[in-house]
Amino acid sequence: MANEEGVPVDLYIYDLTNGLAALLSPSILGRQVEGVWHTAVVVFEREYFYGGGGVTSCAPGSTALGAPQRVQRLGATFVPFPVFREYIRGLAASAYSGAAYRLLEHNCNHFSDEVAQFACGARVPEHILAQPERDLP
User: Fold this and answer.
1) 7 has which bridge partners?
2) Residues 56, 63, 60, CA angle at the centre, nearest 5°?
3) Which of 12, 29, 34, 75 sits CB 3.0–4.6 Å from 40 for a disulfide?
4) What are phi and psi of 83, to 5 degrees?
């Protein structure tokens, strides 16, 4: 899969409210909230994400959430797949076990950010990472 251009690394961005946050937030919060974001990293033809059950992977776009609202190309990785696989296994056994999940402080977006940094040096957009502090006072 890898070549001199690397393997693509994409960020799949899902709105857990399917548009309801954008519709209802002005009346409930008094300000616009575009969505409640869940992210996953797609690399090596797999979608990697984190939740209360720990680290999971699946075919891209095949989660219970359906198709992502947005796909953002983060870059390309030159990390060999066996090294990446061991990195993911290490995260799953330690910092990103199911027991370590915290909805606001240690969630899917933090996982995606850490994986993206490892894979290609990119970050999850700050507005996604900062959402709990900004939108859920």
Assistant:
1) 77
2) 80
3) 12
4) -70, -45
Alpha carbons 131 and 137: distance in angstroms, whole number: 10
- Assigned token pair, 12: 């799949």
pTM for the model stands at 0.91
CATH for 7-135 (3.90.1720.30, 3.30.70.360, 3.30.70.120, 2.170.190.11): 3.90.1720.30
Percent share of the chain, pLDDT over 70: 93
Three-point CA angle 89, 91, 97, nearest 5°:
100
Any idea which residues carry the catalytic annotation? 38, 108
CB contact at 8 A, 40 and 59: no
